[in-house]
Amino acid sequence: MGIGFDFTAKLLIFRHISSPPVIFLPGWSMFVKQWRMSLSFCTFAFYFAKFFMDKTYKDIKLFLTDVDGTLTDGGMYYTAAGDTMKKFNTRDGMGLQLLQKAGVKVGILTSEDTEIVSRRAAKLGVDFLVQGKRFGGKLEAAEAICGSMGISLAEMAYMGDDVNCEPLLRAVGFAACPADAMPQVLAIPGIRVMTLKGGDGCVREFINEILPQL
Length: 214
Known about the structure:
- By secondary structure, the chain is α/β, with parallel strands linked by helices.
- Helix content is 43%, strand content 12%.
- The protein has eight helices and eight strands; from the N terminus they run H-H-E-E-E-H-E-H-E-H-E-H-E-H-E-H.
- It has helices at 3-15, 28-52, 90-101, 115-124, 136-149, 166-171, 183-186, 202-210; strands spanning 62-65, 77-78, 84-85, 105-109, 128-130, 156-159, 174-177, 192-193.
- A six-stranded parallel β-sheet has the order 5-4-1-6-7-8, sandwiched between helices.
- Strand 7, helix 7 and strand 8 (192-193) form a beta-alpha-beta unit.
- The two termini are 41 Å apart.
- The model is unreliable at 1-25 (pLDDT under 50).
């Protein structure tokens, strides 16, 4: 057997022994040093696999999207009576329904908590609606949804545009953002940047890339 295979075998055995016996063998100290070095390598390998291994959209089981700046242009419209309005793109809505037809669960995950979004979600018939989740709350909410479906974040796609979406975008298997997303989001390794801006059909653009592989 090769040296690489021999070391891998020793490493697997070592990691599965919670309290290794005290045995003095030739080269044992060197093996321990190699094992410690391998931890850094394994960490590197994990992130390399996450961002550079060949992933295909057919692995997607769940698609979630942000609202403000993604499904909308980020604008908030107020009437003289104090009512708030948002503008949605109907093409994005059709895209979410096409994903459902293809067997993918879809949902809305947003920081805001408004009746407007509740009505839009009901109109589209999305599978999940989670509102009022800021920063790390979005990641926790997505993990809960994945847990209920029996899938991992690696099988999920998420689209967002701002810093409160960043932790989740970094964690999912398939991340995307509008063309006008914040710089911190645009800089996320492996993120798919659309050509369209938020509210201009960017969600549909991403969905149109996914659908042929489902």
